[in-house]
Amino acid sequence: MTTVSQRAEHLVLVRDLIVLGVERQIHRRSELQQAAIKEQLLVRVSDGKPLNYTSIYRYFDALRFLKFDGSGKYGLEDDIAWTPSARELAKCGTVSYRTKTLSEPEKAIFRTSIFLSDASQWFLAYFCNTDSVPRSQEQFVTLARPLHVIHESVERSPDIGKSNEWPARDNVEISFDPNAGEIIRRPTKEFLYTYRYWCLDTDIIDELNVREAERCGIPKFHSYVLFPLDPTVHITPDQFLDMIYSSLGRKLKHPQVVPIPWLMYRICPKAKISVEKFKSLLLQAWHKNRHLLHLERGPGGLIEGRIYSPQRGYSERYGNHRYYLVVDGTIRSNLAVFPITKGG
Predict the structure, then answer these.
(1) What is the DSSP letter of 160?
(2) Can you tell me the distance from the alpha carbon of 40 to that of 183, in angstroms, rounded to the nearest whole number?
(3) Which sequence spans correspond to the domains of the chain?
(4) For residue range 18-33, what is the model confidence (pLDDT) as tens digits?
(5) How many CA atoms lie within 13 A of 320 on its CB side?
(6) What are phi and psi of 309, to 5 degrees?
(7) Which end of the chain has less neighbouring CB within 10 Å, N or C?
């Protein structure tokens, strides 16, 4: 299947367009476009000039694709038919309008829309290794497996032509098991820069893509993994401590020092917890078990880059800074784990 379009990847801007259109009772796309430009929504960050036609159309296309616009016409001069889900999103989105984050109620509405859209078939179904297409997060969590990104961009060879094996000019290669040689190709723009962002921003999936993965002991083709999140999982600090020891072989005879990213790769996909949840649980377990866990800074600093700040820009929200663990202003990249003594 060839890529149809590169839809807008910023769900916060989709939300803002819906809030603007529903609250002001705007039903014509051209009027919504003008209002959004006036509100500095559909403008370039660099110079404040309006986005070009193609970029603006991507946002209107996303409204229809995610079932917020029920109209059957595409033109800028055609009317928008706001759906009940759009009105629901506008109602809870007024508080966070123009912010760079989605509230939990907003995420829930977007998740429902994503699962009911073709994104479920063209993205989420590839995690499931089955003919069925997940239509809810509960179904997805039950069926989905971690998915490895082997190559982020694979250009189609000129002699392949329009073969169905290569869905677009630029493709991403994915696999459940990089060692097995079974590879799936999907259009890079949709798979990694649209649907991936949508599902990351709404907590359907999370990802591990640490630059220093190989230095931390993770093989290259296993270093970029997308995995489902289970919102029903509840892990206590004691349970998390047990998961750490299980990752190391449980019964330690001598202290071991491991890179924190190595533990992330071992624990997050299997437990279906996010990177942020992992870091929170690690800090809780460390505070409670100082005699067993020591957070250390690795030689030279294993993690590259700088800590995230709002000034870095919305587009960098899933950069390498996510894998930092900062304690008292100091980056901790290693964890020292000590044997559990009798009665300890």
Answers:
(1) G
(2) 43
(3) 11-107, 120-228, 247-337
(4) 999 999 999 999 999 9
(5) 11
(6) -140, 160
(7) C
Say how far residue 93 (Cα) sits from the centre of its chain: 21
Tell me the CATH number for domain 11-107: 1.10.10
Question: Lowest mean pLDDT: which of 137-146, 164-173, 247-256, 310-319?
Answer: 310-319
Tokens of 273: 């917890």
Do 275 and 268 meet the contact criterion of CB atoms below 8 Å apart?
Answer: yes
Contacts of 326 (CB under 8 A, 6+ apart): 307, 332
Residues 6 or more apart whose CB falls under 8 angstroms from that of 89 comprise 15, 18, 19, 68, 106, 109, 110
pLDDT tens by residue, 157-186: 766 555 566 788 899 999 999 998 789 999
Show Cβ contacts of residue 153 under 8 Å, excluding neighbours closer than 6 positions: 170, 171, 172, 188
Count other Cβ atoms within 10 Å, centred on residue 101.
11
Enumerate residues 6+ apart whose C-beta is below 8 A from 252: 245, 337, 338, 339, 340
Task: Report the first-to-last Cα separation within the chain, whole angstroms.
Answer: 58
Bridge partners of 330, per DSSP, are 327
